[in-house]
Amino acid sequence: MAEISDTFIVELQYDEVIVLFALLHRLEDQSALENISQDRAELIALQSLTSALEPLINEVFSPNFAEVIVAAKERLTGLVE
Asked: Where are the domains of the chain?
């Protein structure tokens, strides 16, 4: 079993990071995470994931971040929305 101080590396494509961050951030803003789970440990883990993803995104504070998200979704799905 892993020790509590162990860290792990998860490989994601940049577009996956953007879309996942946008989803988690939106759920946090809407307080929807509490509707997904009442388990405090799960909520902490999701918030930690959001915090870990944020510094990986160059455009996170860009005024056109919404467009960046749309473009990332289009590249991931191969669809134009």
From this structure: 14-77
